[in-house]
């Protein structure tokens, strides 16, 4: 909330990302009381899908603006005759979450699809659980492999000669 309220004191990408985060929490806050009311599942699905789509669009827009801001910063460094500073590599935790969270969503969708294809019985429930566990396992392996590759950052060096005016 502080990033959104700071207005021009924060980069645009950070404010957009904060708005996306607030959208996610606002969607959850809206869904909680709706679950306690007698509304249909389709209404809950529409609310959840709208919130997720809006948050995803804001996150994508924030990444585009962040990339633009980084390029502008690199141009400023180059104009002064310096190599741009090394970009910080994303943390292993973030890399892990980027793979695992979509895996959980895909696993949930797959499990629901397995359960909706026929009558629910213990065998179908076990099949849905094993299929979901398999999907999460695949995404978990991808997350571990991606996090193990380590950070990739460019190293910048200041010029050793005189600085151009």
Number of strands: 0
Run of helices and strands: HHHHH
Reported for the largest beta sheet, the result is: none
Number of helices: 5
Mean pLDDT equals 81
Strand coverage percent: under 5%
What does this structure look like?
The chain is mainly alpha-helical and 165 residues long. The protein contains 5 helices and no strands.
Helix and strand arrangement:
Layout: H1 2-5, H2 12-35, H3 41-79, H4 92-116, H5 122-148
Helix pairs in contact: 2-3, 4-5
Offer a few descriptive terms.
mainly alpha, 165 residues, 5 helices
Short description:
It contains 5 helices and no strands. With 165 residues, it is mainly alpha-helical. It is flat.
């Amino acid at each position: 909330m502080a990033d959104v309220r700071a207005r021009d004191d924060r980069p645009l990408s950070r404010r957009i990302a904060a708005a996306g985060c607030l959208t996610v929490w606002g969607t959850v806050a809206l869904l909680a009381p709706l679950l306690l009311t007698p509304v249909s599942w389709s209404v809950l699905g529409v609310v959840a899908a709208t919130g997720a789509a809006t948050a995803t669009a804001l996150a994508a827009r924030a990444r585009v603006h962040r990339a633009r801001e980084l390029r502008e910063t690199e141009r400023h460094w180059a104009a002064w005759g310096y190599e741009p500073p090394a970009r910080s590599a994303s943390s292993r935790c973030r890399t892990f979450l980027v793979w695992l969270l979509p895996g959980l969503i895909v696993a949930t969708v797959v499990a629901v699809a397995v359960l909706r294809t026929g009558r629910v019985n213990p065998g179908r429930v076990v099949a849905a659980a094993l299929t979901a566990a398999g999907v999460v396992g695949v995404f978990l392996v991808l997350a571990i492999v991606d996090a193990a590759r380590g950070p990739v950052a460019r190293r910048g060096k200041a010029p050793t000669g005189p600085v151009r005016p």
